[in-house]
Each structure stands twice: as structure tokens, then as C-alpha cells.
Amino acid sequence: MINQDGVWTRWFRYLTCLVLVVWLIMPLIPLAIWSFARGWFFPDILPRQWTMQAWEYALSETAGVLDSLWLTIGISLSATALSILVGVPAGRALGMYKFKGKEVVELMILAPTIVPGIAVVLGIHSVFISLGLTNTVQGVILVHLIPTLPYMTLVMAGIFSNYDPAFEAQARSLGASPLKTFWYVTLPAIMPGIIVGGLFAFLVSWSQYILTLMIGGGRVVTLPLLLFNFATSGRNDITGAIGMIYILPGIFILLLTAKQLSGRSGAVGGFGRI
Amino acid sequence: MTNVSIQNLTKVYPGADTPALDRLSLEIASGELTALLGPSGCGKTTTMKMIAGLLDPTSGDVRFNDRSILREKPESRGVVMVFQNYLLFPYMSVADNVGFGLKMRKVDPDEIKRRVGEMLDLVKLPDLGDRKPSALSGGQQQRVALARALIVEPEVLLLDEPLSNLDAHLRFEMRDLIRTLQQEMGITTIFVTHDQEEAVVLADRVALILDGQMKQYDQADAFYKRPIDEATARFFGGHNFIPGTSQDGKFASALGPLGLPDGAMTGAGKLTFRPENVCIGHTRGDQNNLTATLDDIIYLGTQTRLKIRIGDTAVEAVVNPNDVESYSIGDQVPIHLPVGTLWVIS
């Protein structure tokens, strides 16, 4: 492609890149520095002494960071998988069919993105107590579905509104069973949506604090909880180290799915509704 | 070899007052190519979907060789439907598209590869197997869709408007390809179309459906020579309908007595004849010769359309431009209506 853009367009592009970097990358730099610092006080621009102590502690058995990391990955992956299982059919219904009360259903699905989580979780807490789901990993996974499902469902609704079900009829006519039709025809067509929706579901679950704290009752300690404990106790160095561990999966997933996130895939179309 | 029997097939969509398809009955002989012809919304696509198993009929039956297929799943009926917009799976190569049906039948991969190659040769696309469907032209996509359907050797092949998305020069090529393959493989084929020309050039027999009801089921030429009623004749471009009475092989009307062919109905009815069958400028034999006044001459390039008046009755005629070069508007001309081209409808 030949670059025919004017000077101003190019300058604007550089400017937006700069803003993006300042906004997204810069805040992480002090965090990284803190994780290697032994004390870092005003007016020093950089810490006077460097150390690996915070990292050694963060990666040690006693801190429980690694246990917490695996637990958080497990919870987020489970919440993502459940979101996909529920969100794909729900998105199909919303994207492809007209039915009575569709607007109400859409609003209900969107509600968790509008209503503060703490308001929701106070109500759910009492329900979960009677179901014996409080203080359990299962309970935490279930409650994470409240914020993850809207994203998954909306992305899939966007995908399915551009989807032609005649392809499925064609596959059936050519001899494919319903299951094979889904596997060979539907799934490849909606895969970009599943990837993007799953990514959002994972990251939303990954960053839950209030919901995990309330339903987990302090027994289910995910990384955000651990991070918050150290941050409030003033250990900036350990907070920095855990913080760096905490952002790794997000970056990893973003790199894996960068292609699907670009506007061309249409998978992000469902966000027009938010 | 499979014959298809459609018996009183009816579909009423939920909330609709009138049936989309009303008691359609058709007997289609094994290996025949049949057109379901009708304007859009007449129920022809509904019929196809019910045969393919993509839609449940309200009542009636569809039988292949006397076996009712309505309770069978779409994938096990032995029917393949080719949709109007081809619906090639976009993320599969052309070869994978063509081989899809065999893969679903768990055919050995080497065997699939061999038969896909044969099939692509047959539809004259031998080197395109590795391409993606989006890299093909409309005509090529159509041929891939046809290959994908034929490779599973269906008992019955359904085609939805097979020629309508193609350019004029591709239509005859595709028509010949469909007819050749269908005849060679002996697959009973039903296609739907809204285009009477498409129906006539492709089909052995045509079923005309208007407003959910079958009007006439016959060989293509019958719709021109022996239409069953005025709506049928009009759908095929008929113009001339003259009221009168048929008796003893003669039709009495404002045109005077005219000789009728054998088999024409008797009693009060309408005389109909096609504009292109009116002979202008000469008489022949001793009956059906009249004199007409030329009201208008409309030159259409390959033919000329005439508005003529016989007494007070307006009639349309279509003739070869050379035949009327010497005439001008207002002239009195002799005309002849050949006996075999007249028909009486009620």
C-alpha cells in the first residue's frame, strides 16, 4: 500500500501512538522499578540500591504468590469456558432471532456492566450462603460470570447478526449431522468472536476484586486480593513484583489474539451496543 | 434411479391466513429434470425446503420410490440442495468444499482426493482446487457448488434459481453443463425459478405455481400452445384473449368464426393465441383469414411488435422486422391465424 497521507495525518498518528504509550506503558514503569528497589525515596529519580529481594520473596513458597497465580488462572479459565458455553447460544439468539421481550433480555444482560458489582454481590451473597457456595472456588467462578457474560454474549450477538444460517442448512443437506455441522461450519465462522469474547471474559474475571473477596470470603485468594494486601501494607517492592506477574497473562493473551482484535474481524462489532 | 411423488403437500406458516403452498401434487419420473416455476413468494422455495428437510410441511407427503422421506433427517434423505447464492464454505479451499459431503460420509481421504479431482474435471475447473472460493468468479462458484452437490451422487438434486445469478453468456454454458451432468448421472432433479425462460430452456417438464397453487404441470411447449387459463398464458407472455363460444370445432366471436385444433374445449370461453403466431401480410388456405388495421408498429431490434385491430378487437402480434418493412401505421393488412396455434381457455 502506498502511503499517500498528508503531513498532518501522519503527525496525528504519531501523536496518538505517543498518547497510547504514555497511557498504557508509562504507569507500569515505576512498578517495574519498585520491584527491584531497596527503598526509593523523594527526590531520587531512581532507587539508590537495587535488589532481587522482592522477587525472591514473591517467588518463594511462603508468599503463596505462585499458588495464587495458578488458582487465579484456573478460576479465570473456568469462568471463560462457562462464559463461552452460555454466551455462544445466548449471542446466537440475540443476534439472529426476533422474539417478544428481546429488548428487556438485552437490557438484563447489559445490566451487570452498568450496575456496580458491589450492589449485585451483596444480594447474591445471601443466596450463595443458602446454597453453600460462599468461601468456595466454585462460588467464585460462578459469581465471576456476572461481569464476564455480558461481554461474551454481546460479542457473539455481533458475530451472529452477520451470520448466514443457510450455511448450516447447506451442510446438513450435504450430509453433515447437527454436531458435525457445528464443528465444521458454524465454529470456524464464529471463532473470531469466541476468541475476542473469551479474551474479554478472561481479563474481566482476572481483574475481579470485590466479587472474589465477598464470595470467596478471604479463603479464595486470587492475585488481585494478594496484590491489594501488599499494596495496602505499604510494601511497594513486593507489590511491584506481584504486579508484574499479574499483568503477564494479559499481555500474553493480547499478543496471541492481536489479529482478531483489529477492526477487520467484525468480532468487536457487538460492542456497539455497550 | 428415483422417482419423486409429492402428494397434497401443504405449508401454512404460523400466523398466516392463506397457505404458502396449497395441496401441491406432482409425479416426477426417475431421471427427469423438472422446474417449479412461479413469481417470488408463490411457494416454490418453500416446496424445495420441505423436500430437502429444512422445513416441516403442515400436511401432505413426499415419497422417493414410494418411501416417505418426511420423517428422515435432512442429512439422510439422499437429497442435496444447491442454494441460489452457492454458499461455498469461505474458509475451506475449493477442493475441501467439493469433498465436504464425502468427508461427512467418512470416505477414505485418498478416495476423496481422487473423486474431487474427477469432479472438478467434470465441471471444467481442473486447476482451481487449492483456491479459496472468494478468489473465484460467480460462474466458477456456481460450478463448484454443483460439483459439491453431485459428488455425493444424491438420489434427488434440488437447485434454487440455478441460472439467475449468471451473466447472459454464462447461462447457456451452465445450462448445458447442468443438463449434461444430470443426464449422465441420471439424477432426478428439481429446480425452482421465477424466470419462464430459465424453466423452458432447462427443464423436461415445468410445474407452474401461482399463489401457492399449481396451475399446470406439463412439457415446456404446452404452456405456449395449450395454457390452462389466462393467468398461465399471461405468465408466459400471452396477450390475446377474446371472449366467445367454442362449438363443433369453431370459435364464434367478434372476429367471426375461426377453425380450432382438435382437443380444444367446447362452450363459452376465451380464444387465445400467441402474438408471435399471427401471420401478417398473407392468407393461407380457406379459413382463419382476416383483415386487420395496423394501429402501431414498435420496432424492438430482432423483432417488431404490432398493435392491430380486427373489427373492434385489439390484438397484439410479434413478427420478423422484414415482414412489415413495407407497411405503415393505418394500413389494412391481411392476416392469418393458423388453426394449430389457437387455443380456448375457460
Short description:
Chain A has 274 residues and is mainly α.
Core attributes:
heterodimer; A: 274 residues; mainly alpha; MetI-like fold; 12 helices; B: 346 residues; alpha+beta; Rossmann fold; OB fold (Dihydrolipoamide Acetyltransferase, E2P); 2 domains; 5-stranded antiparallel beta sheet
Topology diagram in text:
The complex is a heterodimer of chains A (274) and B (346).
Chain A: H1 7-24, H2 28-35, H3 53-58, H4 65-96, H5 102-114, H6 117-131, H7 137-161, H8 166-173, H9 178-206, H10 210-216, H11 223-232, H12 236-261
Helix pairs in contact in A: 2-12, 4-7, 4-9, 5-7, 6-10, 7-9, 7-10, 8-9, 9-12, 11-12
Chain B: E1 4-11, E2 21-28, E3 33-37, H1 44-52, E4 59-64, E5 67-68, E6 79-82, H2 94-104, H3 109-122, H4 138-150, E7 156-160, H5 168-185, E8 188-193, H6 196-202, E9 205-210, E10 213-219, H7 222-225, H8 230-235, E11 240-247, E12 250-253, E13 258-259, E14 267-273, E15 279-280, E16 289-299, E17 304-310, E18 313-319, E19 332-336, E20 343-345
